[in-house]
Amino acid sequence: MVTGELKNKVDGLWEIFWTGGLTNPLDVIEQMTYLMFIRDLDDSDNVHMKESIMLGLPYKSIFEENVTIGDRKVPGNQLKWSVFHDFPAQKMYANMQENVFPFIKNLHGDKESAYAKYMGDAIFKVPTPVMLDKIVTAMDEIYEKMEQLRSEDVRGDIYEYLLSKLATAGVNGQFRTPRHIIKMMVEMMDPKADDLICDPACGTSGFLVESSEYLRKKKKAEVLFNAKNKEHYMNKMFHGYDMDRTMLRIGAMNMMTHGVSNPNIEYRDSLSDQNEDKEKYSLILANPPFKGSLDYDIVSADLLKVCKTKKTELLFLTLFVRMLKTGGRCACIVPDGVLFGSSKAHKDIRKAIVEEQRLEAVISMPSGVFKPYAGVSTAILIFTKTGHGGTDKVWFYDMKADGLSLDDKRSEVKENDIPDIIARFKNLEAENDRKRTDQSFFVEKQEIVDNAYDLSINKYKEIEYIPVEYPPTSEIMANLRALEKEVQESMAELEKMLGDEMA
Question: Which of 79, 277, 437, 499 could form a disulfide with 464 if both were Cys (CB 3.0 to 4.6 A apart)?
Fold first, then answer.
């Protein structure tokens, strides 16, 4: 979480944009993202160069001696944040407009890449040299503070804090998944080097970024030191769809900053006939928007055949099943209503997952997880596509704390179930003897069937009531009289002492 001095610095940066005339929060976020991307390119290039030297591998810097921009040759070092941040304001501004921004817009050589497509209409909107100079100075101070904190999550926390300032956050379904929840889901699913990963409602590509980071950290040798796997990782592994071009632009930059050169991020309405993906992906990670009802006319007929509904949360579940290849896995966030809703559509999709696929886990999360955006109660569903069933028992976990307070402030607290969830999920055999009064337990498939495929944890959790025995009323009254007598005696003694002193 962003707190204290760092929060004040981020607020100060926001104020620079605001007072400089950029009052649309989304514009501010977008411009900040460009500048963070430019700075991160410098840092990332340095890291990759050091790694190549250590490993004895060839490396060509993106900031080579001369970089072609249009019909001009520009010294590569002038495009590096570490160089131009020392320029006078006027020179820095001209360099940003004429060199740096055109450079990042055309950074990806493949004109058909996601990055090229969504950066094509990017606009640099900082209006004056003085304002740019203030922004650069403020960002240097923020990054310096980040270095001092030495937390791998702090950059993401800053970004999440910036997104929380959007007035539209939580209304249109964007920016809704906290990073620690994303990390938990990714770690539970344990992406493989040959996975084909998709988020059909990707937003800023949080799930894709975290998956890429997980693979780089946990399976570095397997992913990056194998030519075939590395090519797959860079160009084919990650797929994301969204209907907001700004989000796609931010998502593409986010992926490139994290070392994925060519993510497959596309403008697409995942629920429409525009999305023809079937039996394609081996892993889906998603928190789709729950924005109510859609018209049947704009929903793919394939989805309506399985689940006749206008509710987006049910349609997305149907979509995930369709998009997964046999053996493919899914971890997705759903509103609680999906678990116990009594409509035919609700029951149909739950039945389809339990009977036709293999439902593995239901993790119930407290309502405060998505504050300050919304107070909706949610759960995580984890299942594997089989096409022929396979559900024998389902693991339930009652998450009560996620390491942050469940109010709008979301301050850090000691209580955190996430490490326990991950550890138990990775060792489910040890859960067989757990009781229904415990925080996690198994429920047999037949019991779920008998309860109309209800997946809410409260349907199966048992509450242990410990009787409290009180002494008889006569004994309580006797104790009260004894206490009263003791008080009276003490008062009398105090009055005597005061009387002696007065005398």
Answer: 437
Q: What is the DSSP string of 11-45?
A: HHHHHHHHHTT---HHHHHHHHHHHHHHHHHHHHH
Give me the residue label for tokens 């250590």: 54
Judge if the upstream peptide bond of residue 263 is cis by omega within 30 degrees of 0.
no
Q: Which long-range contacts link 137-143 to residues 24+ away (Cβ below 8 Å)?
A: 138/9, 138/12, 138/13, 138/16, 139/13, 139/35, 139/36, 139/39, 140/85, 141/9, 142/6, 142/9, 142/10, 142/13, 143/39
Q: How far apart are CA 102 and CA 95, in angstroms?
A: 10
CA distance 418 to 218: 19
pLDDT of residue 247: 77
For residue 364, give the amino acid letter. S
Contact 416, 401 (CB under 8 A): yes
Closest CA to 268 of 122, 114, 107: 114
Nearest-angstrom CA–CA distance, 15 and 11: 6
How confident is the model at residue 105, as a pLDDT?
Answer: 81
8 Å CB contact between 431 and 379: no
CB 393 within 8 A of CB 362: no
pLDDT, tens digit, 9 for 90 and up, residues 154-212: 666 676 677 666 544 444 444 468 888 999 999 999 999 999 999 998 888 889 999 99
List CB contacts of 180: < 8 A, sequence separation 6 or more. 153, 402, 403, 404, 418
Distance CA 253, CA 258 (A): 9
Structure-derived torsion over alpha carbons of residues 490, 495, 497, 500, reported in degrees to the nearest 10: -160
Across the strands, what pairs with 33?
A: none
pLDDT digits (tens, 9 = 90+) for 479-493: 899 999 999 988 888
Return the amino acid letter for 454.
D
The predicted structure's pLDDT at residue 502: 57
Q: In the predicted model, what is the mean pLDDT of residues 363-368? A: 92
Q: How many CA atoms lie within 13 A of 398 on its CB side?
A: 16
Greatest alpha-carbon span in the chain: 106
Q: pTM score, two decimals?
A: 0.79
Give me the residues paired with residue 281 across strands: 324
